[in-house]
Amino acid sequence: MNKSILITGSNVGLGKEAARQLASIKETEKIILACLHPEEAAAAKIDLEKSTGRFIFEIVIIDTSDIASVRSAAASIKEPIDAIIMNAGGMAGKTPGKLTSSGMTQIAAVNLMGHVVLVDELLKVGKLKKVALFAASESARGIKKMGIKRPNLKTSSVEDFASILNGTYFGDKFDSMQAYGLVKYTAVMWMAAQARKHPHIKFISMSPGMTSGTAAAEELPIMLKIMFKYIIMPVIMPLMGMVHGVEKGAKRYIDGISKSNFESGKFYASHESKVIGPVVDQSTFFADLNNTDYQDNADLAIHQFIK
Questions:
Q1: Fewer beta carbons under 10 A from the terminal one: N or C of the chain?
Q2: Which residues make Cβ contacts (< 8 Å) with residue 38, sequence separation at least 6?
């Protein structure tokens, strides 16, 4: 059982709901809300204490797109934690393709880079004890109904993965939806590499599925935001049976860090043609996920950007 858990992006949506569900487990002794904005983190803490009746929440301020911020946050964690849920991410606002100081695009930095640095720092000083869960996405293996293609890199070399992270993969036509899926794919491969490097820690990639009630739509360009908020998510997706509530999405996280049937290094998400419902090992229909060379190349590519 995990007594202490850190959740990034936990002031709203899936992260906050995961914190709420974890607080309902009596064995949970501490939940660290790792958030970007102090005011929003404080408000979430008060709300969670009120709704759960438990006063086990602590706040750590972290900007997952900034390496220095992540290292400072990791250093502020004084006691070891049992589990980490890497939930922060999204579409990176209006400038997903803009390069950060690391050389990664904003969408790659906010979803992946900060989490890599956080895990590296915690492992370095022995502060991560049991399990690391990365919030993956069905888009990492493609969603045909949404026009998101399955990753099909030329050679899956270090250079291929690096081109995803710095945006050159897309040439002059940066596609934020495709970029999101490919960044999540790179993250899944990194997680698999970590599982082999650190066999005493369980590394699970778990998609929350297509979930309503998240803040993701707020970060989209204005026209796409309107489409998602008022047409796609509330009307089209339910009619197609392609969306579930935030409670079910967060429950996937809780199961991922607590249930023994999930295997380290694997990527779990909905069945191949689905974006909700029971989760399965995605490598059963996407063989590239099991390629250890590809996994190591993704790991090496990411660390080229981390100084």
A1: C
A2: 59, 61
| Helix, coil or strand: residue 279 | strand
Q: Rounded distance, CA 306 to CA 287, Å?
A: 29
How many Å apart are CA 246 and CA 225, to the nearest integer? 19
9: left (phi over 0), alpha (psi -120 to 50) or beta: left
Closest CA to 123 of 74, 184, 191: 74
Structure tokens at 225: 């935001």
pLDDT value, residue 199: 98
pTM of the model: 0.93
Q: Which domains does the chain have, with CATH numbers?
A: 4-303 (3.40.50.720)
CB 62 within 8 A of CB 37: no
With residue 9 as reference, give the H or E element that holds it.
Answer: none
Beta-bridge partners for 204: 133
In this predicted structure, what is the pLDDT of residue 216?
A: 56
Residue with tokens 């100084």: 307
pLDDT beneath 50, residues of the chain? 239
pLDDT in tens, 143-156: 988 889 999 999 99
Q: Provide the token pair at 41.
A: 């983190």
CA 257 to centroid of chain Cα atoms: 14
Rounded Cα distance, 273 and 177, in Å: 18
Where do we find the tokens 């939806």? 177
DSSP secondary structure string for all residues of 18-80? HHHHHHTSTT--EEEEEES-HHHHHHHHHHHHHHH----EEEEE--TT-HHHHHHHHHH--S-
Dihedrals phi, psi of 252, to nearest 5 degrees: -60, -40
